[in-house]
Specification:
With about 140 residues, the chain is an all-alpha fold. The chain has four helices and no strands. It has a single domain (about 15-125), classed as Four Helix Bundle (Hemerythrin (Met), subunit A). It has helices at about 15-35, 40-70, 75-90, 100-125. About 20% of the residues are buried. The protein binds fe (ii) ion (FE2) (2 copies).
Length: about 140
């Protein structure tokens, strides 16, 4: 349950998406700190905020792909990974095992950003359709 640090390595090169990832990692750090201090009620509140932010973030990426790289071979797998996230989240109970929840959040988000989201960023940039400031926060 270490604090996740935003590093240059996490950048995918699309400003709006990078900002959203930075905020998502901050929220996960907050949830981690609450888990460590045993404040599970507050943890639940932050988890609800994370869920709502994650849902709109996934939508931003999916719309961006639809608009810029609809034929990209990784698109359907990327969308499937977003869907599977909710299956995992639904299986984890912060009251029975807060550490498992935090461990999952950290590894899923870092793993997804470094693989799928980075690949999406490269695919978009290779088409020269670099979108800045897309969609609402
Ligand atoms: Fe994604
Ligand atoms: Fe993402």
């Amino acid at each position: 349950m270490a604090q996740l640090l935003w590093t240059h390595e996490c950048e995918i090169g699309i400003n709006q998406i990078d900002q959203e990832h930075r905020y998502l990692l901050q929220m996960i750090n907050r949830i981690t700190a609450l888990a460590r201090s045993g404040r599970i009620n507050n943890m639940e509140v932050w988890q609800a905020r994370l869920n709502s932010y994650a849902a709109s973030h996934f939508m931003h990426e999916e719309v961006l792909m639809e608009l810029t790289i609809p034929e990209w071979s990784g698109r359907s797998r990327h969308i499937r990974e977003h869907r599977n996230y909710w299956v995992w989240v639904a299986e984890l109970d912060i009251y029975t095992d807060p550490k498992a929840m935090v461990d999952f959040l950290e590894s899923w988000w870092i793993g997804h950003i470094l693989s799928m989201d980075k690949a999406m960023g490269r695919a978009i940039q290779s088409r020269g359709m670099h979108h800045e400031g897309m969609g609402p926060q």
